[in-house]
Amino acid sequence: MACKRSRGGPGTPRRVPPALNGRSSGPPPPRRRRILHCSVWGEGVGTRPTIKRLARRGGVKRISGLMCEESRSYLQQYVQGLVQASAIHTGHSYRTTITAADVTHALRRSGTILYGFGT
Q1: Which of 12, 19, 51, 80 has the most neighbouring CB atoms within 10 Å?
Q2: pLDDT tens, residue by residue, 50-107
Q3: At CA 60, angle to CA 57 and CA 66, rounded to 5?
Q4: Burial (Cβ within 10 Å: 0-12, 13-18, ≥19) of residue 104
């Protein structure tokens, strides 16, 4: 009688080489690094409708396309500086998570006071 060959589906047990007995050989693989990309600007923060909404709140009736680009670049620089200052406060506290208090401290350091978020 001929042996049936297994195709290696989900129910088939894995074959482990007899010398390893379930242990790995050699050093572990290097840790995967997180890919850093600018995810803030693709999710509606720097888009044209958002900038128009902010301008309407400030009393602007119409806004041109060049003004949208200019305000987007200014907003990106402002948020980047704020996040860097907040990260400095977080690092001096020996933490890795930026809290609302870190952001308010960074805003206070830049001369802007934000009420309602703790210290």
Answers
A1: 51
A2: 889 989 999 999 999 898 889 888 888 888 899 999 999 999 999 999 999 999 999 9
A3: 115
A4: buried
The number of residues making up the chain comes to: 119
- The domains of the chain, with CATH numbers, are 48-110 (1.10.20.10)
pLDDT at 42 over 60: no
The answer to whether the beta carbons of residues 101 and 119 sit under 8 Å apart is: yes
3-state SS of 30-76 is CCCCCCCCCCCCCCCCCCHHHHHHHHHHCCCCCCCHHHHHHHHHHHH
Phi, psi of 53, deg, nearest 5 = -65, -45
